[in-house]
Amino acid sequence: MNATRPLRPPTRTDRLLAALGGVLSGYVALAVADLIAGWVRHEAGPVTAVGDAVVDRTPTAVEQWAIRTFGQSDKAVLLLGILLVLALIAAALGVLALRRRRAAAAGVLGFGVVGALAAVSRPDSDSALDVLPSLLGAAAGAVLLYVLIGRLLAPGTGELPDGAARADRRSFLVVAAATGLAATGAAALGRAAGSVAGESATASRDALRLPRPASPAPAVPPGAQLDVPGIGPFITPNRDFYRIDTALVVPKVDADDWRLRIHGTGLSRELSLTLPELMSRTVVERDITLACVSNEVGGDLVGNARWLGVRLADLLREAGVRPPSEGGPADQLVARSVDGMTIGTPVEAVMDGRDALLAFGMNGVPLPLEHGFPVRMIVPGLYGYVSACKWIESVELTTFDAYDAYWVPRGWAAQAPVKTQSRIDTPRPLARPAAGTVMIAGVAWAQHRGIARVEVRVDDGPWEAARLGAADGLDTWRQWVHPWQAAPGRHTLTVRATDGTGATQPEEPTDTMPDGAEGWHSVVVTVEES
After folding, report:
1. Where are the alpha helices (DSSP H) in 307-429?
2. What is the value of pTM for the model shown?
3. Residues 6 or more apart whose Cβ sits within 8 Å of residue 494
4. What would the pLDDT profile of 460-507 be if each residue is shown by its tens digit?
5. What are the residues whose beta carbons fall under 8 Å from the beta carbon of 96, sequence distance 6 or more?
6. Comparing C-alpha atoms, which of 290, 299, 311, 310 is closest to residue 380?
7. Which among 197, 210, 297 is positioned nearest to 253, based on CA atoms?
8. What whole-number distance in Å separates Cα of residue 340 and Cα of residue 347?
């Protein structure tokens, strides 16, 4: 008898149960893969590996749409989308198994091959064992699908009596329920095993004692934080600091195992530093504002923090590096993350005297895991995608002609100084304030140039100077406020800033690609009778 053919014509209920069996088989495949990944490494799991492959191959326009639409929840949405697609495909394979059990089981195995290829093609994959989670998980799912559909289509010919059909379905449901419970347990074990590395990283962070800076940051000047309801804090709390990167799973690096390598063109000697060795160098503390190139006009992908670290220029000079202005052969510094991300930074910018840091502290504590623990790069005046490498493990000196970092082939500029921006934080868009004095307030930033002036315009009226909060150096944003005597009606509020060089923000709006958005931020409000 042909085992790939149903032994009685399937009913609508059979198809629904078969779809359920397909979804359950997919769940078992992922649960077993999670279990294996817990012992291999979490990043080798099929969902993470395929998700990373999707991120790497997503057209930039789609990626920017996702950031605009979902903000910092884009990764969660991507993972949810992958799981939903897998569930739909698994359900379809379950229905197919009613007619072709072997073909459906082979389909499950095919997805395991896809996951395995995605895992070993990750930049941070260094072991053939990375194929095991996807392959073993798919094998478990394929076997379960074959067995479940066999239970549903018990031996017989033609139409089975209703009682027999109910018995077949009861057998199917018993096996399905038992397998589902076992799979849940396997997934829990896998996550528990995988959490060991995370616990090690967390424990090393908890045990880390930050050194006192030889050059501490000055106290934030009085008046830098304006007392205006609706305006955010001058120093962004770590929990609120924006996070934009490609890591679906936050790398968990044990500080005791971390090591930084500095190598490449134009060095007199390579450097290899542990974290204690790095922290034994001259430590500085600085307030620096970071901005993401994906930040649209008026967006919130910008934050200001107090960073603790070592000047990268000091280490480069220790290695014998000379900037191009001094005849050095390398004009690009390529920072590499433990997850394979590469970020290219001009050597000249790192060595021109600004406080370019290898930071290990953020707002008085060790870097949070999601913000790059144990060490990340910070270069004031450059967008994050060309300067702010998180989870850094190596620095290579090369040239822009010789190497394109991760974002450049995807349409972004190789070099990207931060553009002058200003934002209205209050009143919010579509707010309905009462007539009378309304405080218009927000922030402006032009890192490494500073903010010299902010102006506000109501409708098509004249530009009026806003009052600036105290400056905390050239590398941080400045808050501003402007009292407005608001008359009833609908009004458009617009802001623009002028940086320390005397250049004013251009009015013409531009996209975030290839090197950052430009344009004036506006909000529309309706003032009501008081």
Report:
1. 312-318, 347-350
2. 0.83
3. 456, 457, 458, 520, 521, 522
4. 999 999 999 999 999 999 999 999 999 999 999 999 999 999 999 999
5. 103, 104, 107
6. 290
7. 197
8. 21
* DSSP assignment of 264-318: ETT-SS-EEEEHHHHHTS-EEEEEEEEE-TTPPTT---EEEEEEEEEEHHHHHHH
Q: Please give the Cα distance from 116 to 98 (Å, whole number).
A: 27
Q: Are 489 and 526 in contact (CB under 8 A)?
A: yes
CA–CA dist 106, 143 (Å, integer): 10
What type of residue is 331?
D
CA distances from 375 to 176, 395, 451, 456 (A): 47, 12, 29, 40
Range 256-271 burial, b when 16+ CB lie within 10 A, else e: eebebebebbbbeeeb
159 pLDDT band (50/70/90 cuts)? very low
Cα four-point dihedral sign 251, 252, 256, 257: negative
Q: Which helix (H) or strand (E) holds 31?
A: helix 12-39
Residue with tokens 């790069």: 377
Tell me if 424 sits within 8 A of 227, measured CB to CB: no
Are the C-beta atoms of residues 497 and 505 closer than 8 Å to each other? yes
Give the residue from 110, 87, 94, 95 showing the smallest Cα distance to 144.
94
Where is average pLDDT lowest: 181-195, 212-226, 359-373, 417-431?
A: 181-195
pLDDT digits (tens, 9 = 90+) for 419-454: 999 999 999 999 999 999 999 999 999 999 999 999
What are the two backbone dihedrals, phi and then psi, of residue 468, each rounded to the nearest 5 degrees? Answer: -90, 145
